[in-house]
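User: Could you go from structure to sequence for me? I need the amino acid at each position, not a summary. C-alpha cells:
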C-alpha cells in the first residue's frame, strides 16, 4: 500500500514536470497575427467568390446589374460590420490571453513609468540634500 502511494506521487510529480511551458510574448504575437491573417484571407476569399457568383448571375441575365451592385454593397457592409465585431472580440480575447501569461498592459507600463519618474525626483532631491550638508 505504501508502495502504491509512492508510485502515484511519483507519477503526479512527473506530470507536473512535463507540463508544457507558457508561450512567450513573441509566440503569442506570431500566433495571433497568423490567426488574423487567416481570418482576413478567408473573408476576402468569401467576398471574391460571392462577387464571381453574382457576376455569373448577371451574365446569364438571372440578376439585373443594379441588383447585383446592391447585393454586393450589402455584403460588403455586412462584412465590415462583422469585421468590427470580430476585431472587438479578438481584442478582448487577446487581452485575456496576455493577462494570463503576465504581459503588462499599456496602463501598467504607464503607471510604472510614472512611478519611476517620482522615484527619480525623490532620488535627485535626496542627492541635492546630501550635497547641501
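Assistant: Here is the amino acid at each position, in order:
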Amino acid at each position: 500500500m505504501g508502495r502504491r502511494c509512492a508510485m502515484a506521487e511519483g507519477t503526479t510529480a512527473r506530470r507536473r514536470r512535463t507540463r508544457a511551458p507558457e508561450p512567450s510574448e513573441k509566440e503569442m504575437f506570431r500566433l495571433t497575427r497568423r490567426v488574423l491573417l487567416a481570418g482576413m484571407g478567408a473573408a476576402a476569399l468569401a467576398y471574391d467568390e460571392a462577387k464571381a457568383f453574382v457576376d455569373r448571375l448577371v451574365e446569364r441575365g438571372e440578376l439585373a446589374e443594379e441588383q447585383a451592385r446592391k447585393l454586393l454593397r450589402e455584403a460588403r457592409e455586412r462584412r465590415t460590420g462583422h469585421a468590427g465585431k470580430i476585431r472587438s472580440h479578438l481584442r478582448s480575447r487577446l487581452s485575456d490571453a496576455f493577462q494570463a501569461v503576465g504581459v503588462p498592459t499599456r496602463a501598467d507600463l504607464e503607471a510604472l513609468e510614472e512611478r519611476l519618474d517620482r522615484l527619480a525626483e525623490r532620488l535627485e532631491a535626496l542627492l541635492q540634500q546630501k550635497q547641501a550638508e
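One structural detail worth keeping in mind: The chain has two domains: 24-102, 108-133.
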